[in-house]
């Protein structure tokens, strides 16, 4: 645990097989953390380990099997981490996926899967690390929210609902655990180039003769263009790295990326009818 007489800090990152999670695991390892890179299928660790090799961080990263919808794997990974290092300084609740489709056409099973992963999975992870963090008297929990946690766009109601839930939960949590030295922050990225888009497009819910076909096509067109031109996700990993190393995390919300600051501001300043008219204009383009 100790190197050069110094206690090494530890971090647990969920969804570390790809995208932000992979990059955050590398970023924290480069910053000197012992990282548990948690993924539901450890057979998907090749990309992470290659990136770790390039970054010279292989020795600082251990892979753990953890599905955020499976309580046994959560408890197992947290207990292993405590046995191995004796502490959990940082939890990055990153695992997530995006269910797409208009409300009427998304089956209940998909709504449940969305909430189980993005929201209840994050709640379960948070609850699992709190006893150790409280006992230590410190800890940092980074919640991967989204601009969709502040702004519900048509065609992504399930995703928005899950991220709005993450926002409300984290706001309450921050108040509750601050007296124990535990810090909570929400990272709210706009669109970034990761696998989440392709996975979401592949599983878009829609009916063949759908009355929503036009608007769905319009929304998907915008989402595709956004995904293709989205910025490098390393920016988000670097933000998480800077946050966990801060002496004080003074804000609850850290928006980052295209539109992430502007959209919530517009949401607060513009009258609702303007927002609605603009959204309807966009959806009409698909007809
Ligand atoms: N990319 C963006 O534009 C964007 C913007 C805002 C917020 N976000 C958020 O950022 C987070 C990471 O997404 P990403 O963009 O990096 O996408 P990604 O590359 O698809 O990564 C998602 C990760 O979550 C994992 N995951 C999914 N379900 C899981 C479960 N039940 N248990 C454990 N892990 C699970 C995936 O594992 P598998 O490899 O096994 O599927 C994968 O490692 C998500 O919370 C997402 O909502 C993304």
UniProtKB/TrEMBL annotation:
Pfam families: adh_short (PF00106). It comes from the Bacteria. Residues 9-190 form the Ketoreductase domain. PROSITE patterns: ADH_SHORT. Keywords: Oxidoreductase. The keyword Oxidoreductase applies. Signal peptide: none annotated. Belongs to the short-chain dehydrogenases/reductases (SDR) family. NCBIfam families: PRK06914.1. This is SDR family oxidoreductase. It comes from Cohnella hashimotonis.
